[in-house]
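Tutorial handout. Part one gives the primary structure; part two gives the three-dimensional structure as tokens.
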Amino acid sequence: MRLFLLPISTRRSLIYCQRLNKQLSPKTTFADKITTRASGIWLKWEKAEKGWQKKVTSYGNTLFQTIPHEEWGLKSIPPISKRRTEEELLDKKHVDVIYPASVINEERVKEALRRYSGDERQAFHTRWMWGSIAGMPATAPVALLPVSALLRSIATSIG
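Part two.
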């Protein structure tokens, strides 16, 4: 695995992970199928000329643009699994970190990798998680409204 640190500004850098020897299994997982299906639906909705699907993707893309570059870069790093942990510990595989030495010195590279490992963003994500949990009781009834309206319309059409 190779990690690339690309400077965006004087204080920020983008991380990108290139997987070496990526082994593709012939059997796709359920999560891969769902991800592929969701991205296909999203692309189809983006191509819509007008309507609620176009509005959803427009608002969604606006929200995606508020995500910091650092968070987007972390998507390229594969998730840790028990199998991968065991393989890497047994094989003692090393990770190459590639960065422009003329722009970023080695100490700042170590600092950036520590930041990306979760130290800096942990408090941010914890705060939003608890905020989401606190907001669930207020938003749950709103989520049930379309279901109740659908059931009422079915009941009136039958009876």
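Part three, for discussion. The chain has a mean pLDDT of 78. The longest helix spans residues 122-158.
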